[in-house]
Specification:
single chain, 205 residues, mainly alpha, 9 helices, disordered N terminus
Length: 205
């Protein structure tokens, strides 16, 4: 079964762009929110001076945009890599493996992708665009919604992201990788028998 190669995605940044600054900033944006994060806090997290940050980025928003650009470029590359694969387990696995690698390479940007939606800048349409690219990579047709598939994808990739970030924090990326991929694939697999809730009744209180 062919799989995507997994190069360190940080190597794709233009020369001179400091990946650590982008990723540390993204982690702070995800945890604290955009407005509550200062340039000095980003500098401290990245172990740089504020002056060094300003050498590379004119403003805090420029760093935010760099993080979003990193995420968008990743998803576009994943889509390009899987576009010719038939929709199904092989394509899903390729997207999952790319997602795990990206979280290992960019834990802060990965946290931002799931945590910034309800922070400032509010309702960034760029994140919606990136989500649509992810759906397309997984072969989801938004004109013919399969609710079970949408729920499975949402649960599977949310859990995958959190677990992969925990692997980074604990230094267990190699040991956990195969388990994360397989567990995510299990979550994406349709149930053998559709679940019916029509027979369930709520207890009387």
């Amino acid at each position: 079964m062919p799989t995507l190669s997994q190069p360190d995605s940080r190597a794709e940044l233009p020369s001179g762009i400091p990946a650590d600054i982008i990723d540390h900033a993204a982690a702070l944006f995800a945890r604290r929110g955009f407005d509550q994060t200062s340039m000095q806090q980003i500098a401290d997290a990245a172990r740089q001076t504020r002056e060094t940050l300003l050498t590379h980025f004119a403003s805090k928003f420029a760093i935010y945009e760099a993080a979003i650009d990193t995420l968008r470029a990743h998803m576009r590359q994943v889509l390009a890599d899987v576009r010719d694969l038939p929709v199904g387990p092989e394509r899903d696995r390729a997207v999952v493996e790319a997602g795990v690698q990206f979280t290992y390479d960019w834990p802060g940007v990965s946290a931002l992708s799931s945590g910034i939606a309800d922070s400032e800048p509010d309702g960034d349409p760029q994140l919606v665009e990136i989500g649509m690219i992810a759906y397309e990579a997984l072969g989801i047709d938004l004109k013919q919604l399969d609710m079970e598939r949408i729920v499975r994808v949402t649960c599977a990739f949310s859990g995958m992201g959190m677990t992969a970030m925990q692997a980074v924090r604990t230094g267990l990326t190699r040991e956990w990788r195969a388990h994360i991929v397989q567990t995510t694939m299990d979550a994406l697999r349709p149930a053998a028998t559709p679940v019916s809730y029509t027979h369930l009744t709520l207890p009387t209180i």
